[in-house]
């Protein structure tokens, strides 16, 4: 099925948002390679970070013919304002394990819902891709949930630290839900169909369930539709530095073949 | 290494850790099944706090080494070996079904073999030897109670769908060799080399 011309720009925005979230999260989390809390978790967290980047790559490849750009150009060759990632994936976690896991936990639950929506898209190649990514997202969710429970029910210090991370990151979680320009049309035309309930409610329900089980809590803020952020190219203070470092090699010779 | 990481202030080296220990990590042995219905093969060991963590970590570690369809992990305390190296800490009461793993020669990997039912780990090891000719001649035999083997769920995603061949030796060799060949085949390069040699010698 060809994509209607008038929906193309919004579809590009939507898939860039998904890919950019994953690329930044993967990039940030890969900083933990060699520094994980225990050796095996070091390997596991690095593997999950690699997964995020692999998912981003797959989405950029899919977008290539639609956006008429190659995947490397999409990943590394844009200006900061052209990225559509949510504010929560941008800051460095300062090597605070509780913060790294908390962010991963928020994003994995969001992604599982996002790919469930995309898996119902009437654009079949996209739906097929989303089904496969969604299945892998389940692995990520299991991993993050397990750590939240472990830290929440662990020692007093573990609990305090993860609660602190939740207090810091909960206000940013809502940035994941900022819609891209043209999202209502994508929803209406079946490219990005709505779920049985608003996504934010489903997400809150899932996340709060795990937190309750872990004896933790988070004060989430309500979504403010008037606030423009990452999905519209307005990024936090840390983003410029992140992008500069991430695209350093690409910028030496854009389009270089390896 | 990231610049952020290079500039990281790790704080005082002797920063006190204010946490009460909850006990040690335990060793688990991991087996991976490479094809549906194929045997589970020894993959390696890992350390984890409990069974759940062992499975999550096994999936990311040994499950990503090569294509695999299922994973088993077994707490070392649930493993008995014919050489006496491992003994089951709390053996099942009465008769139980044990899974047998055999190592043909010293240094070989352990392979999943038959199941036997036995009244004790010692009897399971003895029965394992008799159950199959290759087990009789095996260098070493392990047994573990079947209900203590932690298994991934059927249909669960372990090996990812995105191209992971770069993780494998064959994938790496292939892509690197291809790139070299491509590089050497470029005529401009060989011409350049000739010119280069003229100048040097």
Topology:
The complex is a heterodimer of chains A (258) and B (201).
Chain A (H helix, E strand, L loop, with lengths): L7 H23 L8 H29 L3 H6 L20 H22 L5 H29 L3 H18 L9 H6 L10 H15 L25 H8 L1 H5 L6
Chain B lengths: L2 H4 L19 E8 L6 E9 L2 H11 L8 E6 L4 E2 L14 E8 L7 E8 L2 H11 L1 H5 L2 E6 L4 E2 L17 H17 L1 H14 L1
Antiparallel strand pairs in B: 1-2, 1-3, 3-8, 4-7, 5-6, 5-7
Report on this model:
The complex is a heterodimer of chains A (258) and B (201). Chain A has 258 residues and is an all-alpha fold. Chain A has one domain: Ferritin (Up-down Bundle). Chain A has ten helices and no strands. The two termini of chain A are 34 Å apart. Chain B is an alpha+beta fold and 201 residues long. Chain B has two domains: 139 residues, no CATH class; 31 residues. Helices cover 31% and strands 24% of the residues of chain B. Chain B is built from six helices and eight strands, in the order αββαββββααββαα. In chain B, the strands form two sheets. In chain B, strands 2-1-3-8 form a four-stranded antiparallel beta sheet. In chain B, strands 4-7-5-6 form a four-stranded antiparallel beta sheet.
- Fraction of residues in helix of chain B: 25-40%
Order of helices and strands of chain B: HEEHEEEEHHEEHH
- The overall number of domains of chain B is 2
Termini separation of chain A (Å)?
34 Å
Helix proportion of chain A: 55-70%
Radius of gyration of chain B: 25 Å
Strand content of chain A: under 5%
Structural class of chain A: mainly alpha
Mean pLDDT of chain B: 83
String of helices and strands of chain A = HHHHHHHHHH
Total strands of chain B: the figure is 8
Report the major sheet of chain A: none
CATH architecture of chain A: Up-down Bundle
Number of strands of chain A: 0
Largest interface: A-B, 33 and 32 residues
| Overall morphology of chain A | globular
- Oligomeric assembly: heterodimer
Strand content of chain B: 15-25%
């Amino acid at each position: 099925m060809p994509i209607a011309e008038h929906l193309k720009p919004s579809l590009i925005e939507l898939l860039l948002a998904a890919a950019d979230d994953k690329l930044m999260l993967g990039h940030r989390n890969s900083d933990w390679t060699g520094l994980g809390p225990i050796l095996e978790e070091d390997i596991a967290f690095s593997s999950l970070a690699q997964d995020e980047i692999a998912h981003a790559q797959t989405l950029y490849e899919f977008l290539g013919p639609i956006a008429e750009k190659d995947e490397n150009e999409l990943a590394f060759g844009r200006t900061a304002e052209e990225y559509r990632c949510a504010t929560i994936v941008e800051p460095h976690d300062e090597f605070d394990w509780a913060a790294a896991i908390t962010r991963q936990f928020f994003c994995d639950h969001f992604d599982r819902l996002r790919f469930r929506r995309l898996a119902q898209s009437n654009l079949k190649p996209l739906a097929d891709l989303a089904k496969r990514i969604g299945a892998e997202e389940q692995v990520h969710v299991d991993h993050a949930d397990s750590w939240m429970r472990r830290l929440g029910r662990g020692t007093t210090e573990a609990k305090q630290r993860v609660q602190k991370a939740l207090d810091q990151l909960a206000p940013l979680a809502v940035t994941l839900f900022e819609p891209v320009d043209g999202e209502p049309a994508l929803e209406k035309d079946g490219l990005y169909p709505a779920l049985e309930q608003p996504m934010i409610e489903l997400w809150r329900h899932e996340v709060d369930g795990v937190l309750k089980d872990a004896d933790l809590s988070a004060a989430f803020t309500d979504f403010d539709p008037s606030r423009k952020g990452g999905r519209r190219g307005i990024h936090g203070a840390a983003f410029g530095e992140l992008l500069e470092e991430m695209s350093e090699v690409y910028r030496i010779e854009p389009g270089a073949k390896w | 290494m990231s610049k952020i990481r290079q500039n990281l202030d790790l704080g005082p080296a002797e920063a006190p850790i204010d946490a009460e220990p909850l006990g040690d990590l335990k060793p688990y042995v991991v087996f991976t099944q490479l094809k549906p219905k194929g045997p589970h093969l020894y993959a390696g060991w890992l350390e984890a706090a409990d069974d759940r963590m062992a499975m999550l970590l096994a999936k990311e570690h040994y499950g990503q080494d090569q294509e695999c369809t299922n994973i088993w992990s077994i707490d070392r305390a649930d493993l008995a070996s014919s050489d006496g190296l491992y003994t089951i800490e709390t053996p099942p009461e009465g008769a139980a079904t044990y899974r047998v793993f055999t190592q043909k020669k010293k240094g070989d990997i352990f392979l999943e073999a038959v199941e036997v039912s036995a009244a004790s780990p010692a009897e399971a090891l003895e029965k394992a030897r008799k159950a199959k000719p290759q087990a009789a001649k095996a260098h070493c035999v392990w047994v573990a109670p079947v209900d203590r083997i932690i298994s991934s769920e059927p249909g669960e995603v372990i090996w990812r769908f995105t191209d992971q061949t770069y993780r494998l030796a064959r994938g790496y060799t292939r892509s690197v060799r291809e790139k070299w060949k491509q590089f050497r085949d470029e005529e401009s390069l060989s011409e350049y080399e000739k010119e280069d040699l003229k100048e040097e010698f």
